[in-house]
Design brief:
single chain, 228 residues, TIM Barrel, 10 helices, 43% helix
Length: 228
Amino acid sequence: MNKPIIIALDFPESGEAIRFSEKLDPSLCRLKVGKELFTSSGPLLVETLMKKGFDIFLDLKFHDIPNTVASACKAAASLGVWMVNVHALGGSAMMKKAREALQESPCKLIAVTLLTSMGLEEIREIGLQGEPEDIVERLAMLAKSSGLDGVVCSGLEAARLRKKFGKDFCLVTPGIRPSGSDAHDQKRVMTPKIAMSNGSDYLVIGRPIREAIDPNRALEAIMQEIGR
């Protein structure tokens, strides 16, 4: 856990992502490559970033029939990435199949619970019942029983999940906004310091670092805030 900050490379193409990565110290952070960037730039970008010394979280949220997800996870892990994810709403059969596919790989496998952009209205719209924290706990339990290494959850649920699942279950928290930052399209947000004190292992941070005049200084300020 010596590099708890994961910076979201939410860029449309590889050139911007690579130029931005060159401003960062790989000993201080990890990088997240999501759907837009991976779709436009593919495995070559991931390999380029890893050659620069970065651990890569490939955030593609696989959600399909079990065999398809298992094959996709195996292909992703073969790139040498540090972490991949699936969507817990795909169910236990899908997650167990993904776990089996990565049995021989050091790549971490985690599950998305509820997107941090979803508020109560959106949760009700898709027919999920209960409070967000109850839904997240149920999905996290499903992920743990399926053998996954952890889940993506908001900082609002981290303390509850840490208490229930113990220190060895990995909690990755997006929707992190340093004090004074705009929440943008996130709804269940939290500051870095509070999220870490609530039990999050890794914090996914995008705009507050990407849009900073000096991204490395912004990163270092967050590291100081969380006492690292």
